[in-house]
Amino acid sequence: MDITGAAFVVMAAIICSVFGIPFTAAENEGPFEVRIACGSTVDSVALETGYNWSKDRGYTGGSSAPLNVTNRIAPQLNTLRYFEITDGPDNCYNISVPSGHYLVRFFFSFGAEDNGGREPIFEVSLEGTLVHSLAPGWSSIDSNAYAESLLHITDGAATVCFHSAGHGNPAIASLEILQLYVDAYNMGSSANLNVVMRTVKRVSAGAEESGFGSRVRGDEWGGDRHWATDQDLFVSGCAGEAIHTLARISNFGNPPNVYPEAIYQSATTIGTTSKLSYTVSVQPNQNYSVWLHFAEIHPWITGPNMRVFDVMANGALLFQGIDIVKIVGEPFKALTLNKTVMVTSSNLTISFVAVKGPVAVNALEVFQIIPRGYETQDETVWALHDIKHSLQLPSRLGWNGDPCAPPLHPWEGVSCAFDSKAGAWFVSAVNLNNEGLRGQIGDTWPALRKLQALNLSNNFLEGEISSFGNMTSLTSLDLSHNRLSGLVPASLGKLTLKILLLNDNFLSGELPGAVGALPIRGTIMNVTNNPGLCGIGIRPCSTMPLSVKLAVTLSLTAGLICLVGGGIFCWKRKIAITRPHRHHRDVPYAKARTTFVRDVQLARNVLQNHFSRPAPAYHQVMPFNPY
Ligand SMILES: *[C@@H]1O[C@H](CO)[C@@H](O)[C@H](O)[C@H]1NC(C)=O
Ligand SMILES: *[C@@H]1O[C@H](CO)[C@@H](O)[C@H](O)[C@H]1NC(C)=O
Ligand SMILES: *[C@@H]1O[C@H](CO)[C@@H](O)[C@H](O)[C@H]1NC(C)=O
Ligand SMILES: *[C@@H]1O[C@H](CO)[C@@H](O)[C@H](O)[C@H]1NC(C)=O
Ligand SMILES: *[C@@H]1O[C@H](CO)[C@@H](O)[C@H](O)[C@H]1NC(C)=O
Ligand SMILES: *[C@@H]1O[C@H](CO)[C@@H](O)[C@H](O)[C@H]1NC(C)=O
Ligand SMILES: *[C@@H]1O[C@H](CO)[C@@H](O)[C@H](O)[C@H]1NC(C)=O
Ligand SMILES: *[C@@H]1O[C@H](CO)[C@@H](O)[C@H](O)[C@H]1NC(C)=O
Ligand SMILES: *[C@@H]1O[C@H](CO)[C@@H](O)[C@H](O)[C@H]1NC(C)=O
After folding, report:
1. What confidence score (pLDDT) does residue 346 get?
2. Average pLDDT in the 5-14 region?
3. What is the C-alpha separation between 63 and 81, in angstroms, rounded?
4. What is the predicted pLDDT for the residue at 546?
C-alpha cells in the first residue's frame, strides 16, 4: 500500500467513525487468502505468480503422492493428497478463516501412485453442501480438473470434504480459499447468503488465450478468476469474429466485483448473421445466474442507437433492447448486467439477437445457484466427535466433516432425521455393530437428545455403562457381546425401552429392580451371560438383602431370650415375632425363586409374542420375592 493509499485508509477511518459507519479495516488491507499445496511438506512461492503456497495442513487423513501436471490451467505444484478407502469414505480439510465471502477453488489430478493411473470419480462438498461431482472423463478436459464455488463462511472454518463414490481414491492437488468483497456477485436482496454459486463458465469473449485475472492486470479482491476463451462455446456454424482494443476502458474494476480491464478490451461480434449464440451444458431443473459484460470498443460505433440487441436464454427474453453506449453514456465504458434463470433442459443457450447493427459481447459468466444444505446441530457434532474418540473408531469409518450433511454422504453407521423447527439435522440412530471397537462407551451420549436406537453389539468395548438415564427418546439399546463391566445403572429402568440387550458382558452386582421389571412393561430384555450379575430373572444374589438379614437376626435374638427366660409370656412373644416369616419357612427360598423366575420368563415370552397382553399372574408371585 502506498502513502496515498494509507492516507485514504486513515481518512476513511476518520470519516466513518464520525458518521458512525462501522469501518472494516480488513477490506482495506487486502483479502484474506489461503493457498494449500496438497501433499506438500514445505511452504513455497510460485515463480510465475509470486503466490505463497502453504504446505499441506488441516486435513483429516490421506497420503501424499507425486503430481505430474499436464493441465495448462493448474498451478505448478509437485504433490497431491489422496484418500484411500482405509482413510474412510469422507475426508475433509478444515481451514480456519475469518467470517466472510470466499471463492474456494480446487485443482484435481491423479497419478500412478495414488490411483494406478486411472481417473477417480468422487464428490466435493463445502460447508455440508454438495457442490461438485466429478463426471467420467473429467481429466481429459483441462477446465474440468478445476472447480470453483463462491459462498459465505461464517462459522470460523472452511470445511471442504471429498466423498468417495467407490471409483478410485479422491485426489486433490491444490485448495485455495480467496476472500471476496462481502457483496460481490450480489444477485439482489440477501439471495447470496443462502446459496453457493458454483462457477460453470467464465469466458472472455474474443480473447486470444485463457488466463487468470492476475495475468490480465490484477484482480486482488476478485479471487484471481480464470477467464477462458469463448472458442468452445459457439453453437456450431455460428462462430463470431474477435475484436480488440488497446484503448483504456473506464468504469471497470470497481468494488465489489473488481473485474479486470482486459475482459473489456476484447469482444466477439458477428457481422454476417444477426444472431450470436453460446451454449453451456448444465444440469437440468436448476437455477443459473448469468453475468454479462459489455463495453463499446468498435471504432465505428460512437453514439447511441447504432448497436441495439436483445439477449435470450434458451429462447426466453433475458434483456431487451440493450444499447451499451446509451446505457453508460459513452464508448469504452464498462457495463455489467446479471439475471437468474431457471433452466429445464441440459443446455443453456445464450443468444444475442440484433435489433440494430451487429451484436457484440465482451465477457460472460454462468453460475449454478445451489441452495445451501442444512447442517447438523452443533451440540450433536461435538458429541459425536467425543464419541468417535472414546469408542476409538478406526479411520476406515471416516467420521469427518458434518455427520448428516450432505444427506447423500452421512457418516458410516449414523442415521439422521431432519428437525424442521430447528432447521437442522439430528442423529436418530447409531449402529456400530461388529466394527472391532476397543474403546469405552463414554458419557457424551445424552447430548444426542433425539437418539432412538443405539447398537454397539459385538465389539470389545470396556469400562462401565455410562448414564443413558435422561435419553428419553431412546427405545432400543444393544450393548451385547462386549467386555463391559461394573453395575447396571438403575436409571435405565426409567426409559421407555422396547429393547435392552446387555447379554454377554462382564457386568456385575445386583440388577436394579426397575431394570429387572422392564419386561413387565413390554421391554425385550436380555441380561444373561454376565458372570457377576444377579437379581430378577437371572440367578439369586449371594448376599441376603438387609431387610431379610435384620429379620433373621431379630428372630434369633428373640429365640435366645426365650431359651434363657422361658415361660408362657415369652412363648406368646415368639409367635408374634416369627409369624411374618412362617410363610418363608413353609415355602423354601429355592422353590419360591424357581417359581418366580419361571413366571417372569413366561411373562417375557408372552410379551414378546403378544405385546398388548398384560403380564400373567405377576402379583401372585410377588409375596415370594425375597428382595
Ligand atoms: C508470501 O509470504 C511472505 C512471508 O510471509 C510475505 O512477505 C509475502 O508478501 C507473501 N507474498 C504474497 C504474494 O502474499
Ligand atoms: C509425466 O507424464 C508425462 C505424460 O503422461 C510422461 O511422459 C512423463 O514421463 C511423466 N513424468 C513423470 C516424472 O512421471
Ligand atoms: C475446525 O477448525 C476450527 C478452527 O481452527 C476449530 O475450532 C474446529 O474445532 C475444527 N473442527 C473440526 C471438526 O476439527
Ligand atoms: C444483479 O441483479 C440484481 C437484480 O436485478 C440487482 O439487484 C443487483 O444489483 C445486480 N448486481 C450487480 C452487481 O449489478
Ligand atoms: C429456482 O428458483 C425458484 C425461484 O426462486 C425457486 O422456487 C426454485 O426452488 C429454485 N430451484 C432450485 C432447484 O433451486
Ligand atoms: C446441447 O448442445 C449441444 C451442442 O450445441 C447439442 O449437440 C445438443 O444436442 C444439445 N442438447 C440438448 C438437449 O439440447
Ligand atoms: C442428562 O444427563 C447428563 C449427565 O447425566 C446431564 O449432564 C444433563 O444435564 C442431563 N440433561 C437433562 C436435559 O436433564
Ligand atoms: C444390532 O445389530 C446386529 C447386526 O446388524 C443385529 O443382528 C441386531 O439385531 C441389532 N440389535 C438390535 C437391537 O437391533
Ligand atoms: C439371551 O442371550 C443369550 C446369550 O447370548 C442367548 O443364548 C439367548 O438366546 C438370549 N435370549 C433371548 C431371549 O434372545
Report:
1. 96
2. 36
3. 6
4. 54
SS (H, E, C) 388-407: HHHCCCCHHHCCCCCCCCCC
Do 226 and 332 fall within a single domain? Answer: yes
* Grid coordinates of 28: 482495506
Q: Describe the chain by its helix, strand, coil percentages, rounded to 5.
A: 25, 30, 45
357 and 387 share one domain: no
Give the Cα separation of 395 and 228 in Å (integer): 40
- Residues 67-116 pLDDT 10s: 987 777 888 899 999 999 999 999 999 999 999 999 999 999 999 999 99
Residue with cell 403378544: 610
528-553 pLDDT, tens digit each: 999 999 987 788 886 555 555 555 45
pTM of the model: 0.81
Which amino acid appears at position 176 of this protein? E
DSSP secondary structure letter of residue 624: G
399 and 365 assigned to the same domain: no
Q: Are 121 and 165 in contact (CB under 8 A)?
A: yes
Asked whether 68 lines ligand 2 (CB < 6 A), one says yes
* pLDDT per position as a tens digit, 297-312: 999 999 999 999 999 9
Is residue 547 one of the residues assigned to a domain? no
Whether residue 334 is found in the same domain as residue 262 = yes
Domain boundary among 504, 534, 564: 534
361 and 469 part of one domain? no
Whether residue 422 lies inside any domain: the answer is yes
Residue 603 is predicted with a pLDDT of: 35
- Cβ–ligand 6 contact at 279 (below 6 Å): yes
Indicate if ligand 9 lies below 6 Å from the C-beta of 528: yes
Looking at 160, 180, 200, the residue that finishes a domain is 180
The Cα 372–Cα 196 span in angstroms is 6
175 and 201 in a common domain: no
Q: What pLDDT was estimated at residue 488?
A: 95
- pLDDT digits 0-9 by tens, 227-239: 999 988 887 666 7
d(CA 597, CA 536): 7
Sheet holding 90-96, edge to edge: 90-96, 157-167, 121-126, 129-133
CA distances (Å), origin 147, targets 200, 226, 258, 601? 9, 11, 21, 63
Q: Best substitution site from 32, 45, 52 to test ligand 1's pocket, by max atoms within 8 Å of Cβ? A: 52
Domain hosting residue 31, numbered range: 1-180
Nearest ligand 6 atom to the CA of 236 is 5
Q: Is residue 565 part of a domain?
A: no
Residue 5 belongs to domain with CATH number: 2.60.120.430
325-338 per-position pLDDT tens digit: 999 999 999 999 99
478 ligand 8 Cβ < 6 A: yes
**Residue ID of nearest Cα to ligand 2 atom 2:** 68
Q: Is the CB of 112 under 6 A from ligand 2?
A: no
Q: What integer pLDDT is reported at residue 28 of this predicted model?
A: 57
Cell numbers found for residue 209: 488465450
**Mean pLDDT of the region 196-224:** 85
Residue carrying C-alpha cell 437440468: 284
Closest CA to 390 of 438, 460, 453, 457: 438
Q: Which residues on adjacent β-strands are paired with residue 319?
A: 311
For residue 9, give the H/E element and its range.
helix 3-18
- Same domain (yes/no): 326, 390: no
The answer to whether residues 40 and 67 touch, using CB atoms and an 8 Å cutoff, is no
Partners of 278 in the β-ladder: 234, 350
Answer yes or no: is 227 within a domain: yes
Rounded Cα gap, residues 259 and 264, in angstroms? 9
Domain count within the chain: 3
Do 148 and 250 lie in one domain? The reply is: no
